[in-house]
Model the fold of this input.
Amino acid sequence: MKTAVGTVKEATDVSAFTDFKEITKARLAISVVFSSIAGYFLGADKIDFVVLLLLAFGGYCMVGASNAFNQIIEKDLDALMDRTKNRPIPAGRMTVTTASIVAVVMTLAGLISLYVINPKTAMFGAISIFLYTCVYTPLKTKTPLAVFVGAFPGAIPFMLGWVAATNEFGIEPGTLFMIQFFWQFPHFWALGWMLDEDYKKGGFKMLPTGKKDKGTIVQIIMYTIWMMVVSVVPAFGITGALQLSVVAAVLVFLMGGVMLFFAFRLFDNRDNASARKLMLASVTYITLMQIVYVVDKFV
Done:
């Protein structure tokens, strides 16, 4: 009997942990934390591991809270779409009350953690969660411009790390922000292309022209080019303490070129398979680009 009870409790604990990961979108949150840590390494003169832990914890909490609030607001729409109908709230595994408690507690824990680092970091964290929850989420069913609005909180993490390290906002974190800002568009529009039919079930308007056409892909190509240009600006010595060697700049530019190649493949093929390749290339790009930036600083 004890064994049976123990097994049930263990299964319940595992299920609750799985639902927590889903409500906070753990993989997305971890990728955001990675961007913040990369930004911290770029801005720090010396590594303070306490600050690093606070940044990682606070960053996860802020992203997790944003995602939890998002799923509370969109619970009825999530139930209509294949990719989201099994999320904890629409599937009935988590109540709105429980999700709200998770969201509020994580918001407070995140803000406090970031505030301990410095007030500017907490301010940008608060701006991020406000824009994502109160502006981006409601706009998703109203206008394709929601992606533009969502690109702002999405671009904050890379610069957030720099602000955490320096307690300053200037051209350096602004440049990091712009790189990730322009990256958002090809990434999310590739995802939007793949999931367009499903998004329409929930009434979401994610593609810039409202449909899977050449106009959407032209914008993907244009934003990819802007991303490539901005990503090598630090190599020209005009971004203050944020610098990039010529070798690193060439490498980053070539990686952006891979994304551009897949964007043109999407232009030629206009199919989901090409959009998926572009989306995967964008995820690879943002990760490797940040690694190259950090390695270039310390090598």
User: Anything to note?
Assistant: The radius of gyration is 20 Å. Residues 11 and 76 are 27 Å apart (CA to CA). The chain has twelve helices and no strands. The mean pLDDT is 93.
